[in-house]
Amino acid sequence: MKRESAIVNRESAIVNLFTIHDHSRFTIHDHSRFTIHASPFTIHASPFTIHHSPFTHSPFTMYFYIKALHIIFVVTWFSGLFYIVRLFVYSAEANAKPEPERSILLKQFSIMQKRLWYGITWPSAILTLLFGVWIGILYGSLPSWLLIKLFFVLGLFIYHLSLHRIFIQQKKGDFRWSSQQLRIWNEVATIFLISIVMLAVVKQLLSVAWAIGVLIVFSMLLFSAIKIYKHYRTN
Known about the structure:
Structural class: mainly alpha
Radius of gyration: 30 Å
């Protein structure tokens, strides 16, 4: 029996637009040729290009946009927290210098502090909080790791308010914190940063015992480095 060649030989169906919509609203565009053979059936359709619809407004997609903005403002917030304390240190050291150097430096540092604190740090803290609450609403639940993270976030806001108090004090010419004390206080933000990032990334896989141990060891190394730096500067 003569084998029939039911092959659409050398003829291909050109598919100009092949669209599949699912719950995620993904659109698959395939501009390649489909070649169909009778036996066995073989379909060649490659490559596929997947495009996400720009008009998707699902809560799932919105979650990642809000999360990205949240992370951006967390970065700018921590940048402000780290740098403002350095300015406090410089102001405290400038306060001990003779005139007119003292007045010139304090005036310049005061301007820098005001612009940094009110122009970057406070707005970043507020936007971090707003987008964080929005993420919590979209997330829909509060697992244990998130509750612990929120505890550290609360501590970070208390630390932020402590810096605001120092900012007001130095603005009034009250330098009750020494430069060494401010250097130590500056590293508290580092501890909060490590704790929050580890909880946000590792989540429930993070062992509480290991986390506490790492924080203790890191804090000891950090304060040891501060003492070594002080000894180096003194000598």
